Amino acid sequence: MNGRDWTADEMMTVTAARMLWDRAVCFVGIGLPSAAANLARLLHAPDIVLIYESGTIGTRPDVLPLSIGDGELAETATCVVPLPEIFAYWLQSGRIDVGFLGAAQVDRYGNLNSTVIGPYDQPKTRLPGAGGAPEIATHAQQVFVVLKQSPRSFVPSLDFVSSAGFLNGGGERARRGAPGRGPQAIITDYGVMRPDPTTDEFVLVARYDHVTVDEAIAACGWPLRTGAAVEVIAPPSSLELEALRELHARTRAAHAAAVKLPI
Amino acid sequence: MLPSLTLREAIEEHVRDGDAVALEGFTHLIPFAAGHEIIRQQRRHLHLIRMTPDLIYDQMIGAGCADRLTFSWGGNPGVGSAHRVRDAIEKGWPVPLAVNEHSHAGMAAAYVAGASRLPFGLLKGYFGTDLAKVNTTIRSVECPYTGEKITTVPSLTPDVTILHAQQADREGNVLIHGIVGAQKEAALAAKRLVVTVEELVDTLDAPMNSVVLPSWVVSAVACVPGGAWPSYARGYYARDNAFYIAWDEIARDRERFTAWIARYVLGSKDHAAFVAALRADGVAL
Q: Which sign does the torsion angle of CA B195, B197, B200, B205 carry?
């Protein structure tokens, strides 16, 4: 912990949660995005609308789901709809304010790879694949990406484009008619990157107070530029940490619970 | 009245080598017991179709049942890789696996088209991705009204779809509630439909507008309590997240996986015996 009393995951989760606002309609992926969205709901955004691709709309889970379709999500939802409907009527129609995604790799234009490392036909590492992400990345009004920084994950060129960010930059996404504005923030374990409004290239605009700009640049596989100013992000408050840790503790207990089959 | 079969009889009659088979259920109501029976009957050369292969296709692919997979997200949800799916794609073990890969939205549209007996499904999808490069069945048409380019995916029409549901009545009408995924679409897209249920009841008492599959679209019903474990059946039992986490270690290693399948699936005559064998070895169920 290097003298701090929070982890990189906690700092990222809190930073991502702070970016969400009350009543935002948020399409959430599993893992860190789900933790951040629920932390926001428990703290400053009690009426945030959380949608998971399993068809659960307006869900308010007490514990984080392990899968995208845990029973907890359905039981606490405003409504549960079929899969073709969630993608067509709710996502494709433009009703989502924020899509919240992770990935294995990202490039400087916010394109994402969650499919394969190495050639598609002879993969070095076959990853799970795209799932709902390609259309979330296309149709959400904006997208936040959460991913730990390293030269292997923040790469000059993706092995495979699973979900489009700004494509080759310079306005190509908008020219090709994508409905949503695309990725507007990448939250990492060094800070936050945002796209340059002209080139669409992601630049460092904020860092955590325990890392330097040079360290953030060294942990990026493309020559990371900085914005006009690099803000320093406030460390997690005790309130934020307590809420997040209680959420994770409840989740761990729930996921370890034995299931009783009726036979 | 639909004859209620044992699961063994239903699979013997309706699943053949080389079939395109869809075991649907999005996280919820995954027909694990039916998948295990297909492994027991050693079906081969199946084309497996599922949005999320999940552990059931990890098991069926690792057991050598399939040489083709249509899917849109192939991991162990919230845990990591589907190791047996990966091994088949990366190393061809136990047999090479050809993949037909989609996004969730694309696959949902393909099921809707199949259920509607349309040749293709429509969506605004795959924008800027490489999926449309590696899967050449992802194409587009021009909208005849606006000229806009709309993505198309060929319809999915499985030879047989298999579902797990909460209840069937004595007539063979089937009720599903909770997260319903693309189960109705996959059911109506298929030539044959096999359903396992938690419970046979005299009457469904289904709330209006819930998902009911009428008996005349159902080819066979088998009552298999616990048949969705380690996924779940709303109203009966919760998702066994601890087992999903434990599966990572079992599936990571070929020998350990093969021993697990031999001991619990091949070594059990049916689902009740499968559950009993797990309990005998200390798995809390």
A: negative
- Give me the amino acid identity at A227: G
Tell me which chain A residues have a C-beta less than 8 angstroms from the C-beta of B245.
66, 255
Q: Please state the ipTM of this predicted complex.
A: 0.96
Distance CA A151, CA A155 (A): 6
Confidence of residue B1 (pLDDT cuts 50, 70, 90): low
**B residues 37..56 contacting A (CB < 8 A):** 51-52
Residues (pLDDT < 50) of chain A are 1
Domains and CATH numbers, chain A: 8-252 (3.40.1080.10)
Among B134, B180, B237, beta carbon nearest to A261: B237
Nearest partner of B65 among B79, B80, B81, B50, judged by Cα: B50
Q: Rounded to an integer, what distance in angstroms lies between the CA atom of residue B98 and that of residue B205?
A: 43
A110 close to A186: Cβ distance less than 8 angstroms: yes
**8 Å CB contact between A64 and A43:** no
pTM, two decimals, is 0.97
Could you give the CA distance from residue A62 to residue A160 in angstroms, rounded to a whole number? 36
Cβ A71–B131 below 8 Å, yes or no?
no
